[in-house]
């Protein structure tokens, strides 16, 4: 189901706005040009002053601006005729999520094994952080067991004759 609210608006206008215009009234009078039986001037059928403007008449144009505002909503409902594709889509999404979780777990395991290996090697070599260091906790949970070798080192043991000389005389 899909629910979509909407608001639309429209403006229709003519520019420049002109509410009225002036129409010319031309002089169409025909008062002369011919004579009647009594000798008085009468019209001959042609305007006496063609093209002359007598006056102007205001004419309303009917031009107006139109405004429209529509508010409403649209709702559709669709039902698939075949649910096979929808079910396959859900299965694919679930499989993809499981795959991403497994990839994250693998990366976490790789990180922890690398941390264990590096911390163990450093502990064997006698290298570690000071207990008050903020980094001490990085290797705090690593335990090295079954270490059976001792690093090569040399001790100096003084001989007995040398001890006597150091004591200030012969040993009797």
Describe this structure in words.
With 172 residues, this protein is of the alpha+beta class. It has two domains: 75 residues, no CATH class; 84 residues. Helix content is 28%, strand content 25%. It contains two helices and six strands, in the order ββββββαα. Strand 3 and strand 4 form a beta hairpin. The longest helix has 41 residues. The chain is rod-shaped, with a radius of gyration of 56 Å.
Give a brief description.
By secondary structure, the protein is of the alpha+beta class.
Helix proportion range = 25-40%
Total beta-strand segments: 6
Helix count from the secondary structure assignment? 2
The rounded Rg comes to 56 Å
Low-confidence stretches: none
Gap between N and C termini, in Å?
111 Å
Strand order of the largest sheet: 1-6
Mean pLDDT across every amino acid position: 86
Q: Tell the overall outline.
A: rod-shaped
Structural class: alpha+beta
Percentage of β-strand residues? 25-35%
Total number of distinct structural domains: 2
Primary descriptors:
172 residues; alpha+beta; two-stranded antiparallel sheet; two-stranded antiparallel ribbon; 2 helices; rod-shaped
Topology:
Layout: E1 2-12, E2 20-26, E3 33-35, E4 41-43, E5 53-60, E6 66-76, H1 84-124, H2 160-167
Antiparallel strand pairs: 1-6, 2-5, 3-4
């Amino acid at each position: 189901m899909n629910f979509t609210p909407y608001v639309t608006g429209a403006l229709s206008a003519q520019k420049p706005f002109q509410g009225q215009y002036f129409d010319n009234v031309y002089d169409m009078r025909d008062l002369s040009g011919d004579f009647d039986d009594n000798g008085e001037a009468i019209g001959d059928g042609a305007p006496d002053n063609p093209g002359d403007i007598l006056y102007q008449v205001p004419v309303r144009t009917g031009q107006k601006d139109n405004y429209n505002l529509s508010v409403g909503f649209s709702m559709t409902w669709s039902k698939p005729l075949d649910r096979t594709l929808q079910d396959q889509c859900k299965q694919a999404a679930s499989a993809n999520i499981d795959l991403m979780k497994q990839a994250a777990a693998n990366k976490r395991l790789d990180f922890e094994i690398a941390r264990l290996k590096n911390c163990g090697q450093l502990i064997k070599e006698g290298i570690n952080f000071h207990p008050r260091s903020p980094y001490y906790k990085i290797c705090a949970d690593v335990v090295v067991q079954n270490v059976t070798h001792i690093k090569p080192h040399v001790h100096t043991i003084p001989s007995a004759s040398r001890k006597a000389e150091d004591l200030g005389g012969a040993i009797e």
